[in-house]
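> example.struct
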């Protein structure tokens, strides 16, 4: 005797296609057109059992085989999840590129070095630049930062003094890096703002900052951040300080007094 199709169609509608019957939290977890997971597989099996022809029921062996398939599917998913998380721990110390999607659909690229790995709800989270990102956002893994650090831009420890009474350039010794990891330019941040490019000059490893960059600052000590455009976007914040003072004695007056 033929199986009743009406019953099966009705059962499938009850399962997932009636929007009023679908649990909202479940419908938001899987996008339309996504792959079937273990939950969907189990629901299909239950639906099949509920809608079988009572005059010609499915054999027990068929259900056992389907349950075995379900069990194998679940084990494969768990194994895949474990493998992905295990691989994630190997990313610590490596430079990575991630693409994050905002609520409006725009993509933002994030680059940095993985500090540590955290596992939340079974998914590996990568700590990059002080923020946690899902491993699903990972698009590229670069060489270990330790392996390429010697090729990246560096700055010499500098404690410069700028005297408003004796205006002069502030010089910083820097190295733009080498090979494929070299920078072609550098920007400087002072007091939370970028110094204008016309106040900066570079020649033979010396970055010079013109007096105009310090004229409107109060007396005190300021940290400079050097931002390079190398592949790792190297930023140095702990090497250079400038102490702004105002002695009240110009260099010409000091020379006259000495004579």
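> example.seq
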């Amino acid at each position: 005797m033929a199986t009743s199709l009406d019953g099966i169609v009705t059962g499938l509608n009850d399962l997932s296609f009636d929007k009023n019957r679908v649990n909202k939290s479940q419908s938001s977890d899987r996008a339309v057109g996504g792959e079937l997971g273990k939950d969907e597989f189990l629901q299909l099996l239950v639906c099949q059992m509920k809608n079988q022809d009572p005059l010609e029921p499915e054999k027990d062996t068929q259900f056992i085989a389907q349950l075995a398939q379900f069990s194998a599917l679940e084990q494969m998913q768990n194994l895949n999840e474990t493998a992905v998380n295990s691989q994630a721990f190997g990313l610590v110390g490596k430079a990575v590129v991630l693409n994050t999607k905002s609520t409006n659909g725009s993509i933002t690229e994030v680059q940095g070095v993985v500090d540590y790995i955290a596992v939340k709800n079974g998914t590996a989270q990568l700590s990059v630049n002080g923020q946690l990102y899902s491993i699903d956002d990972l698009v590229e893994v670069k060489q270990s930062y330790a392996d390429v650090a010697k090729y990246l831009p560096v700055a010499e420890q500098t404690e410069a003094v700028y005297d408003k009474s004796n205006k002069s350039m502030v010089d910083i010794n820097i190295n733009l890096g080498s090979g494929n990891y070299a920078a072609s330019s550098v920007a400087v941040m002072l007091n939370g703002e970028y110094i204008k490019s016309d106040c900066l000059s570079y020649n033979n490893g010396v970055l010079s900052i013109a007096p105009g960059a310090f004229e409107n600052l109060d007396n005190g000590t300021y940290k400079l951040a050097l931002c390079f455009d190398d592949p790792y976007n190297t930023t140095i914040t702990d090497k250079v300080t400038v102490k702004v003072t105002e002695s009240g004695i110009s260099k010409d007056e000091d020379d006259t007094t000495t004579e």
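> remarks
The domain at 152-245 is CATH 2.60.40.10 (Immunoglobulin-like).
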